[in-house]
Write a structure and sequence with these properties.
It contains six helices and eight strands; from the N terminus they run H-H-H-H-H-H-E-E-E-E-E-E-E-E. By secondary structure, the protein is α+β, with helices and mostly antiparallel strands. Among the domains are: about 30 residues; about 90 residues, Immunoglobulin-like. This is DUF3426 domain-containing protein.
């Protein structure tokens, strides 16, 4: 009926109303996504869950162990010195060995004070003897004004020292007013010992003089 209807309206023209066949679509396969090579990282030992960061970061135990056990340097140095000496002794000649023994004997003899004993029992007075605790006290003796001079002679050396007579100068305003000679308390003073002395000198009064003591030179 429809064909006749269209044929009447448009005579001599034919129309094809059949739907066209569906075109064959070409479906392109989906491009696979690029896959990069896998990278493996070695993590080592896995820490347990109860791992404590405070314990891991605390270096006090290591520091304490380091300070508690210092390297034994002194024994190593002593062993090295002994090995060196032993090697030298093995290579040294008889003359060198004898010279070494003689040097050691002389050193020990000197440290023991043997050289001071060779100089004799008595030695001359020198810087080893000096005066200490010197005092000057004014007093009256039978109606006379006198000065009492007291002092101590000390021997700080390790040898016996000969004591010479003592000279006492009385100085007032850098002017010598009197001078006396004091006999020593002993002929010799042994090493490390001391002796006291005392003397009297007449004083006219006035300003207290200064006393300067010295040993008389050996005649």
């Amino acid at each position: 009926m429809e064909a006749s209807f269209f044929s009447r309206r448009t005579p001599g023209q034919a129309y094809d109303f059949l739907p066209p066949e569906p075109a064959n679509r070409q479906y392109r396969p989906a491009r696979p996504a690029d896959i990069s090579d896998a990278e493996f990282v070695t993590l080592g030992k896995v820490r347990p869950r109860e791992f404590s960061a405070r314990t891991y970061n605390d270096n006090r135990k290591r520091m304490a162990a380091t300070h508690a056990a210092p390297p034994p340097r002194m024994p190593a140095m002593a062993a090295s010195v002994l090995q060196t000496v032993e090697s030298w002794l093995q290579r040294a000649s008889m003359r060198s060995f004898a010279a070494l023994v003689l040097a050691l004997v002389v050193l020990v003899f000197g440290l023991a004070g043997g050289f001071s004993g060779l100089s004799g029992e008595r030695t001359s007075s020198g810087a080893s003897l000096h005066f200490t605790h010197v005092t000057v006290t004014p007093r009256d003796a039978n109606g006379m004004r006198v000065l009492v001079i007291n002092g101590i002679i000390e021997n700080e050396s390790g040898t016996t020292q000969t004591v010479h007579p003592i000279r006492a100068d009385l100085v007032t305003d850098e002017r010598l007013t009197a001078s006396i000679v004091i006999n020593p308390p002993a002929d010799v003073i042994y090493g490390g010992q001391s002796r006291g002395f005392s003397a009297r000198v007449q004083h006219a009064g006035g300003k207290m003089p200064e006393v300067r003591l010295s040993f008389l030179p050996q005649t």
